Predict the structure of Nucleoside diphosphate kinase.
Amino acid sequence: MAIERTLSIIKPDAVAKNVIGKIYQRFEDAGLKIIASKMAHLSEREAGQFYAVHKERPFFKDLVSFMISGPVMIQVLEGESAIAKNRDLMGATDPKKADAGTIRADFAESIDANAVHGSDAPETAAVEIAFFFPGMNVYTR
Ligand code: GDP
Ligand code: MG
């Protein structure tokens, strides 16, 4: 098992609901350390670049509009298998399909407004961390 770093975003819906603290508590209770964080209100250009992998998908425009609809909280999480652990905490993309007790089951409204983002693999984690925190390492040890 490896210590990994992953990029997490608390999306505009969850920031607006005032649940940043509750979501941070879940990261910490799961043994993930918040080693960098910043609040930002993304521009259309930034959101489009960040989600460039989805640019051909039918939901791309809605996704970008949603991500720039209000401030987001962006963090790097570090810990044992942090990438998979964060995805487990998040739950399925569609909150209706997310397991009970996951962040999306508890705080998300819809597949558009689904509370959190998390990197899905070491390669995407590296790219996403560099996007928001240039100069940071992905693996610590
Ligand atoms: P994630 O890794 O679980 O966030 O899901 P994806 O990487 O597949 O998609 C990125 C984001 O696009 C999701 O978190 C959703 O907000 C949005 N999204 C994905 N699939 C759909 C869809 O079928 N319809 C809509 N409206 N949004 C979607
Ligand atoms: Mg994804």
About this structure: Residues 122-132 form the longest helix (11 residues).
